[in-house]
Amino acid sequence: MIEDSVVHLSRLQFAATAFYHFLFVPLTLGMSFLLAIMETVYVMTGKQVYRDMTKFWGKLFGINFALGVTTGLTMEFQFGTNWAYYSHYVGDIFGAPLAIEGLVAFFLESTMVGLFFFGWDRLSKVGHLAVTYLTAIGSNLSAVLILIANGWMQNPIGAEFNPVTMRMEMTSFFDLVFNPVAQAKFVHTISAGYVTGSAFVLGISAWYLLKGRDVEFARRSFRIAAAFGLASALSVIVLGDESGYTAAETQETKMAAMEAMWKTEPAPASLTVFGFPDEKNRTTHMEIKIPYVLGLIGTRSTDKVIPGIDELEKRIAHRIDTGVIAVKKLEELRRDPHNANLLAEFNKVKADLGYGLLLKRYSADVSQATPEMKAKAVDDAIPAVAPLFWGFRVMVGLSICFLALFVLSFYFAARNSFIHRKWLLKWAVWGIPLPWIACEMGWFVAEYGRQPWTIHGVLPTAMSTSTLSAGSLWFSLSGFVLFYTILLIAELFLMFKYARLGPSSLGTGNYHDEHNAGSTAPLKSPAAPVSAKEI
Amino acid sequence: MIDYEVLKVIWWLLVGVLLLGFAVMDGHDMGVGTLLPFVGRNDDERRVVINTVGPHWDGNQVWFITAGGAIFAAWPLVYAAAFSGFYFAMLAVLWALFFRPVGFDYRSKMPSPTWRKAWDWGIFTGSMVPALVFGVAFGNVIQGVPFHFDEIMMTYYTGSFWALFNPFALVCGVVSLSMLVAHGANYLAIRTEGPIFERVRKASLGAMSITLIGFAIGGVMVAKMPGYVITSPVEPGAALNVLAKTVTQQPGAWLANYKAMPLTMLIPAIGFIGGLISLIAIARRNGTAAFIGSVLTELGVIFTAGISIFPFVLPSSSVPNSSLTVWDCVSSHRTLGIMFWVALIMTPIIIAYTSWAYRVMRGKVTVEHIRANDRGSY
Question: Hey, is A467 helix, strand or coil?
Answer without folding.
Answer: coil
